[in-house]
């Protein structure tokens, strides 16, 4: 798995252009050869069947609108928007939604 913006389907870096993700009508659409379409809002909720909440997210920085996998969004914010914490200070729910809970990590076997 790449450490540079890995694709949520195949794990390759999305920086090389092989994989691209977008959201259309609440559905994830990707150019990855392993992609499948899914409803973002339903998949974003952790459950026994689906403990992973890594879904595409739209950057909330005004005029950015970049789409990244949830697990990559904090890196995008740090790389592209160094003052993101100040800019998004009124977006607490969004910032919280980007965190990966201890429960999710445990269910996914992350040490």
Offer a few descriptive terms.
two-stranded antiparallel sheet, alpha+beta, 111 residues, 5 helices, single chain, three-stranded antiparallel sheet, 28% helix
Proportion of residues in helical segments: 25-40%
Q: Tell how many strands the DSSP assignment holds.
A: 5
Could you give a short account of the major beta sheet? 3 strands, antiparallel
Given as residue ranges, the uncertain stretches (5+ residues, pLDDT < 50) are none
Distance between the amino and carboxyl termini: 16 Å
Structural class: alpha+beta
Radius of gyration, taken over Cα atoms and rounded to an integer in Å: 14 Å
Question: Overview of this structure, please?
Answer:
It is a single chain. The protein is of the alpha+beta class and 111 residues long. The chain contains five helices and five strands; from the N terminus they run βββαββαααα. 28% of the residues lie in helices and 14% in strands. The protein has a three-stranded antiparallel sheet. Strands 4-5 form a two-stranded antiparallel sheet. β4 and β5 (67-69) form a beta hairpin. The radius of gyration is 14 Å and the shape is globular. The two termini are 16 Å apart.
């Amino acid at each position: 798995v790449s450490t540079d913006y890995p694709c949520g389907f195949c794990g390759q870096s999305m920086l090389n252009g092989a994989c691209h993700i977008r959201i259309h009508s609440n559905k994830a659409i990707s150019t990855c050869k392993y992609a499948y379409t899914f409803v973002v809002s339903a998949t974003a909720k952790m459950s026994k069947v689906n403990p992973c909440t890594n879904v595409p997210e739209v950057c909330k920085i005004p005029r950015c609108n970049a789409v990244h996998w949830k697990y990559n969004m904090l890196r995008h914010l740090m790389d592209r928007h160094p003052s993101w914490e100040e800019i998004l200070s009124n977006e607490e729910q969004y910032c919280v939604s980007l965190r990966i809970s201890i429960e999710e990590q445990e269910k996914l076997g992350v040490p």
